[in-house]
Amino acid sequence: MKCVVMGIGNPLLSDDRAGIEVVERLEKDGIDVATEAVFTVGFEVLDKILGYDRAYIVDACVLGQKPGTIHEVSVEDIFTTPLLSGSHAMTLGTTLKTGMMVFGDEMPKELRIILIEAETPTEFSNVCTPAVHIAIEKTVVRIKEELAALSTA
To answer: Which of 133, 126, 108, 1 is nearest to 45 (CA)?
Structure first.
């Protein structure tokens, strides 16, 4: 199964870099999976996930929950959950929905969207806050475990 893990964020903004840090950790740990870091939720996302069977997309969010809360959502959740539909995730959802309509079979059959609740998404820093750092670690472990289970299946 071809799999990619994509981290979305701004590497110059504290907690907004959470998705990028997940990808960097997987790369540092030598996990055998394709990785991509992108700085936008536009159509560049599609360019990076087309042709894969499974895609993990990790991004920071501000939904009013406790910082470090990990949310796993579907594309449909983005359009039907009021908090998500008013957030940055809406553009990501629109991009992915467009990809499904236009590219159909080339889109990953399994699409996992993991959002990490940010505490300081707009402060300039190259490190995340402690709560988000813990969520990044949990997300990395979770993805590693799922990838290991897939490789033995």
So the answer is: 108
Total count of domains within the chain: 1
- Model confidence over 5-17: pLDDT tens digits? 999 999 999 999 9
- CA 153 to chain centroid: 24
Whole-number Å distance between alpha carbons of 100 and 87: 21
Q: What is the pLDDT of residue 86?
A: 54
* Burial class of residue 56 in the structure, from the number of CB atoms within 10 Å of its CB (0-12 exposed, 13-18 middle, 19+ buried): buried
Cβ-based neighbours of 22, under 8 Å, separated by 6 or more: 5, 7, 58, 136, 139, 140, 143
Q: Are 58 and 111 in contact (CB under 8 A)?
A: no
DSSP symbol at 41? S
Tokens of 68: 């470090």
CATH code of the domain containing 38: 3.40.50.1450
- pLDDT for the residue numbered 150: 86
